Amino acid sequence: MKTINYEKLTKDEVELSLFSNFNRYQDVKKCWRKENGDLILKEISFTEQWGPNEYKHLVNCLKNTIETGGTVFSVFENNGNSLVGFASLENQLFGTANQYLQLSSIHISYKNRGMGIGKRLFSLVCEQAIEMGAKKLYISAHSSQETQAFYKAVGCVEAIEHNEALVAKEPYDCQLEYGLF
């Protein structure tokens, strides 16, 4: 029987070896695109498979999140021996009423998807965001059909306000929000 443990990571725990068994793989067939103000599901096919460069960049990003007061949650199975998921929450409030905190990443290793791990991570991020004074989560999310299905399932909707810096960085991402109650 597998044991699953959720915990916050410290900056010192975020290192490349943490991701040695993590498989960020996605076979994308369809993506959402905005055309004339409407979201349309289009046939856009590609495979994403993170390699050493993506993981090095990720380590730098996650360390920065922690250094700037944000939080990185991790999910381990088998008593902490294997990372199967993580999520990061930034610490800078933004929006016209400083209502948003950014969920900057949430990923589940390929073989561990569909087990509720992502939903539990999302819930932990929400609890933390409330503690940090946010009224809403902001997510600049991959436009793939599967990714958007996850966010819809947890209750996310199109963001009322768009963070233009995030839109410019990833113009095909869907800008989402989640109300924290």
UniProtKB/TrEMBL annotation:
Domain N-acetyltransferase, chain residue ranges per copy: 17-173
Molecular-function GO terms, alphabetical: acyltransferase activity, transferring groups other than amino-acyl groups
SUPFAM superfamilies noted in UniProt: Acyl-CoA N-acyltransferases (Nat)
Keyword field: Transferase
UniProt keyword Nucleotide-binding present: no
Protein name: Acetyltransferase (GNAT) domain-containing protein
Taxonomic lineage from the root: Bacteria, Bacillati, Bacillota, Clostridia, Halanaerobiales
